[in-house]
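Recall the central idea of this unit: under ordinary conditions, the amino acid sequence of a chain determines the structure it adopts. In this exercise we apply that idea directly, starting from the sequence alone.
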Amino acid sequence: MKRWLAVCLIAATPLLAEAHAYLVSSDPPHKASLSAAPTRLKLRFSEPIEIAFMKLVLQRDGQIQKAPLKISPGSDKRMVIVESAFADAGSYQLGWSIVARDGHRTEGSVIFSVNAR
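Accordingly, the structure predicted from this sequence is:
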């Protein structure tokens, strides 16, 4: 019985490790230095997320921006498109908090800078 339980726990380990959605990629990429401000950000996660429960906070040069963020689904349930006014030069941080379909919440951020010429 103990051996069977150990086999079950070992077999379930990959499922437990994949229980949380995480950010796979962003456009612009994390820590990018851009010559022009983007019109939108694309976030791709490791698994489908519940967009209705997504929370975003945009900061420019350490100050929370009051401009509204428009969130829309991407080409699949793992992608989110964020639109806002990124017109000014500066350092941006988009903090995100998501809930995956399995109910687990994860959070992180994407940082990029816009260098006006």
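The helical segments are 2-17.
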